[in-house]
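anyone seen this seq b4? input:
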Amino acid sequence: MATENKNLSDYDKTTIPDASKFRFGIVVSEWNESITEGLYKGAYDALIENGVAATNIVRWDVPGSFELIYGCKKMQEQMVNAVIAIGSVIQGETKHFDFVCEGVTQGIKDLNVMRETPVIFCVLTDNTMQQAIDRSGGKHGNKGTEAAIAAIKMAALRNNS
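predicted toks r here
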């Protein structure tokens, strides 16, 4: 397991580019809301901690993880330096999990390939609710924090190229 001995919230602040001039979009799935709200909090707090003004963080909610693709596409049009896609898909009894996970992964990949504004993939694809809890502010830290740091680094890369 990739997160077994890693806290997703740990990062070296000295390696993070100045984010004070950047504007970020965060698109949050309403499905599995207790998980996605934890991920959003981790992302939001990390952006603020690294100098992003609250007024430079734009949040949009979408019904589910599959809708993140369209929400992120529209967010890319909003003069943001990077977008964070936040969702949570938990394995159920049907193949729906596989289709949603594959579709969202490919859709976000396509946005990164076809457009200039980076989209950070912060969609948990867990087998159990406990795994999602552990990665959204639980014993493994917060994947939202990790996504915010990735967004800052990608915004800086985009700005420097």
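Residues 98 and 105 are 11 Å apart (CA to CA). The longest strand covers residues 82-90. kinda curious what u guys think
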